Amino acid sequence: MMEQQDFQDNLLISIFCDIDDFCKEFDKYHKEHLIGDETNKDWKPRCSMGASEIMTIIIMFHLSCFRNFKGYYKNYISVHKASYFSKLLSYNRFVEIMKEMIVPMTMYLITFKVGNCSGISFIDSTTLKACQRLY
After folding, report:
1. How many Å apart are CA 30 and CA 42, to the nearest integer?
2. b/e per residue 50-62 (b: at least 16 CB within 10 A)
C-alpha cells in the first residue's frame, strides 16, 4: 500500500511541476498578446490558490477512480492531500473558480498533452438511452 501512496504522491508532484512551468510561460504569453485594458491583464483566478494548484487537482480527478468531483475533493483532496495545498479552498469556492481555468487548461492540453493526429478524426453522436420513459 505504501508503494501505491508513494506513486500517487510522485504523480501529483510531477503533474504540478509540469503545469506550474506551463502556467509561468502562459502568463508571459498572455500578458504580451492580450489586447485591451492594461489593468485587466491577469488571467489567474482571484483566490488564495494558484492556477497551477487548481489545474493539478482537476487533472488528478480525471486520473483517479472517483466518479464524482465532490466526493473526490471533500473525501480525498481535503483529507489526504491537504498538506500539498497550503491554501485549500472550500468545495463550493473551488467549483466557482474551476470555470476560470478553461482557457489555460485547454491551452495546456492542446499544446502538450494531445497525441498526434493520424489524419482521421470523428465524433460519434449516437444517442444513448439512459432509462426507459414511462410516459
Report:
1. 8
2. bbbbbbbbbbbbe
